[in-house]
Design goal:
Number of helices: 4
Distance between the termini: 47 Å
Number of strands: 0
Number of domains: 1
Helix content: 55-70%
Strand content: under 5%
Order of helices and strands: HHHH
């Protein structure tokens, strides 16, 4: 049986392959959800950051650094493709999505641990009388 972290890791790597394909493929072959291109970029990189940060929770800083550098690298690679273009605004949206995804992963792990501690009775109120 596949555990959660292994499943998320598989999803993260598959999502990375989709992002690389979408970024470097000819414009006509790029998948489109709608007319909200910046939302698509933000969501894709947010999901990428979230999935990698959940798959490798002890390496969130490294995940963030590598994904931000990867976003910049992929954007720069578009400069050598004849029908693609690199824009700073696109890169900013991708980096913001990545950072938000990693942050959501960090917050979810942090608060999940807090709730588990509270459920186990390890966290007690400061005032025992409830006030």
């Amino acid at each position: 049986m596949m555990n959660f972290r292994r499943a998320v890791s598989l999803v993260a790597w598959l999502l990375l392959a989709v992002v690389v394909y979408s970024t470097l493929s000819p414009v006509g072959m790029r998948p489109h959800i709608g007319n909200w291109v910046q939302f698509e970029r933000f969501s894709a990189y947010g999901a990428l950051g979230l999935s990698f940060a959940m798959a490798y929770p002890k390496r969130r800083g490294l995940v963030l650094t590598v994904l931000l550098a990867g976003a910049a690298g992929l954007e720069l690679l578009q400069m050598v493709l004849p029908d693609r273009h690199a824009r700073f605004g696109d890169l900013a949206v991708k980096m913001a999505g990545t950072a938000c995804g990693v942050c959501v992963a960090w917050l979810s792990v942090r608060y999940a641990q807090r709730f588990r501690l509270a459920d186990s009775g390890a966290v007690r109120k400061a005032n025992p009388d409830g006030s």
